[in-house]
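queue> pop job 88
queue> type: inverse folding (structure -> sequence)
queue> payload:
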């Protein structure tokens, strides 16, 4: 039998955002140049099949299998103990949210038990023991042998989970691959994941990260992981903003959205409805200010709502048809929570052509800073709201991952409606005011890895890792 001249890599895609990062970016085409690729995907959208087919040997549907109830229970207890040990600002938010959802007596009792258990086991030895138990149960009580048969057939050198947290359906095949002696790797999907998401239960051999700060966080939280297992590549999700072909001419973008290309527009990006209660009240206040302002030329407003959760009140606001205000349709497939390829052009163009951006405390701030745009963050509560402490807007700018942004001087943090109004004026009149601080922060955070080439760096690293087991 003649051995193939290229290593074989399996990409596991269990969530739509991973499609953008690794199938729409340069990662897949770059992998195709020097590796054989099988796509194990839960996302079965027609556009994906059409776009990836030239670059993969095979597309295998990723089926979902229910874990054994005992394994699920142990994992949930470990997750809560991990959260309690982290005790980050984001964790406190989720803690309060789950407390609020416990309405009945049985629910409150269950919640009290979970919290007590979490406090008792919120230490490294206990978490390591729980993680070990989870791994044993997940293997011995695995619900299917399908992945073992698949990997025996494929004989890959590397299995890569494109998102370690979004889409738990990816965990089982990666666990199986690891038990079979196949090298495994994962991408830590976002900058807040290590302080706001669950414990990493799958024992990956390698980890790919956004930046050095995240690498340090990972090594501190999981001392069993060695520095040589972790690689900083940047994230492909920002690559599109640095490729001229993804930026539509201003006139074309404005024509599509119904904007006047001769006048500036402000880009307001909303947060998830469960995280930012009553945000429609702030959007409404911005609309009123722009209607009444004496600014010349009069700015327009584009409100890009959050695809994963938008309140009925926000939707109703968008349907009122305010002049000079556009709530554009979000070109995502809702079933798979996946941006359509066309949305890459629209979103990049909105960022490139907007005069300034407003958001509560979002990754969008980083994208605006990369493109040297003024940014306003929200550090106050919606007018007329009475939010519980755990869900206040003002807490989000203090989250561990976001605090350096808020303190950088590269963004403006509004602490009141009056602040917001004056900052809108400042951002429009003096767009260069915070430019140096924006550039300094982005350079420091990413060490020059915001250049449109992260997708290719990921591919190069995956090929290098796969080559270790290819001989």
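queue> result:
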């Amino acid at each position: 039998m003649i051995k193939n001249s290229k290593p074989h890599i399996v990409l596991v895609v269990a969530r739509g955002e991973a499609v953008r990062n690794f199938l729409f970016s340069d990662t897949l085409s770059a992998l195709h140049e020097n590796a054989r690729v099988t796509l194990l995907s839960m996302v079965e959208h027609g556009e994906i099949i059409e776009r990836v087919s030239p670059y993969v040997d095979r597309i295998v549907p990723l089926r979902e299998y229910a874990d054994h109830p005992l394994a699920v229970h142990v994992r949930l207890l470990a997750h809560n103990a991990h959260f309690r040990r982290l005790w980050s600002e984001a964790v406190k938010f989720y803690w309060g949210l789950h407390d609020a959802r416990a309405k009945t007596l049985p629910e409150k009792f269950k919640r009290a038990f979970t919290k007590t258990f979490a406090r008792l086991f919120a230490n490294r030895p206990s978490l390591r023991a729980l993680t070990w138990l989870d791994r044993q149960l997940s293997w011995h009580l695995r619900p299917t042998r399908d992945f073992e048969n698949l990997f025996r057939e494929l004989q890959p050198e590397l299995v890569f989970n494109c998102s370690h947290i979004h889409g738990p359906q990816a965990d089982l095949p990666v666990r199986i691959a690891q038990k079979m002696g196949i090298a495994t790797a994962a991408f830590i999907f976002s900058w807040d994941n290590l302080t706001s998401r669950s414990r990493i239960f799958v024992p990956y051999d390698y980890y790919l990260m956004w930046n050095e700060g995240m690498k340090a966080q990972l090594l501190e939280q999981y001392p069993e992981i060695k520095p040589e297992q972790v690689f900083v590549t940047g994230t492909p999700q920002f690559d599109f903003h640095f490729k001229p072909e993804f930026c539509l001419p201003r006139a074309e973008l404005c024509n599509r959205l119904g904007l006047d290309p001769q006048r500036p527009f402000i880009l307001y990006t909303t947060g998830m409805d469960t995280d930012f209660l009553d945000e429609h009240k702030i959007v409404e206040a911005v609309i009123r200010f722009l209607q009444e302002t004496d600014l010349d030329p009069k700015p327009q407003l584009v409100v890009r709502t959050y695809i994963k959760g938008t309140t009925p009140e926000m939707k109703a606001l968008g349907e009122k048809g305010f002049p000079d205000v556009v709530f554009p349709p979000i070109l995502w497939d809702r079933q798979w929570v996946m941006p359509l390829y066309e949305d890459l052009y629209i979103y990049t163009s909105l960022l490139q052509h907007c005069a300034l951006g407003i958001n509560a405390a979002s990754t969008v701030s980083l994208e605006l800073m990369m493109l040297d745009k003024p940014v306003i963050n929200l550090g106050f509560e919606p007018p007329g709201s009475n939010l519980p402490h755990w869900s206040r807007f003002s807490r989000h700018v203090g989250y561990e991952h976001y605090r350096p942004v808020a303190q950088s001087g590269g963004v403006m943090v509004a602490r009141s409606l009056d602040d917001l109004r004056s900052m809108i004026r400042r951002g429009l009149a003096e767009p260069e005011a915070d430019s140096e601080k924006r550039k300094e922060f982005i350079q420091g955070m990413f060490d020059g890895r915001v250049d449109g080439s992260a997708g290719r760096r990921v591919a190069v690293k995956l090929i290098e890792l796969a080559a270790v087991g290819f001989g």
